[in-house]
Amino acid sequence: MARGAPGLRPFLPADAATLAALFRVSIETLAAEDYDEDQRAAWISAADDEDAFAAQLGEALTVVALVDGEIAGFASLKDNTDFDMLYVRPDLAGQGVGSALADAIEKLADARGTKTLSVDASDAARDFFAARGYVAKTRNTKEIAGQWLGNTTMTKELAAEAAGRAH
């Protein structure tokens, strides 16, 4: 990453509007090849109620990535077992922000005793997670705001990584 590794910090309630905007632009731009305009609009509608979106982020363990002091992405761990969200600013996609966030979520889950981490990966994110060792388990369709969107439930065994580190 040309700018250096991103800094990470916990989600703060004051981040909610910025993260909602990042969520929207990330889906609109980075998922354009995998989902049509109506599907993306439905997905983006999850952030229409910014208070509810902020509550969702606050209920999970949400980590924010910073590049040059500006929010570059975020990821969240729900119930210590579900990699719930991972979104990166489109201008920083492919520059290590997503990997730094995923590393953090995996380490946090592992530290909390999670053996298997699960993610419902969008079609746009499936290859990213597969490259990190996640294995596809089931193909899903989910209705959001009247649109059907496909995703893939993928899992990664964290206990195996911990055992590998112990040697």
Q: Could you explain how this protein is built, in words?
A:
This protein is α+β, with helices and mostly antiparallel strands. It has a single domain, classed as Gcn5-related N-acetyltransferase (GNAT) (Aminopeptidase), CATH 3.40.630. 38% of the residues lie in helices and 33% in strands. It has helices at residues 16-30, 37-44, 50-59, 97-111, 126-131, 158-166; strands at residues 7-10, 61-67, 70-78, 82-88, 116-122, 135-144, 147-157. The mean pLDDT is 93.
Name the features:
167 residues; alpha+beta; Aminopeptidase; four-stranded antiparallel sheet; 7 strands; 33% strand
Give me the CATH fold name.
Answer: Aminopeptidase
| CATH architecture label name | 3-Layer(aba) Sandwich
Main sheet summary = 4 strands, antiparallel
Averaging pLDDT over every residue, what do you get? 93
Helical content, roughly?
25-40%
Let me know the number of strands.
Answer: 7
Instruction: Give me the number of helical elements.
Output: 6
Secondary-structure-based class equals alpha+beta
Oligomer: single chain
> What is the gyration radius calculated from CA atoms?
15 Å
At the first level of CATH, the class is Alpha Beta
Overall geometry: globular
What is the CA–CA distance across the termini? 30 Å
Number of domains: 1
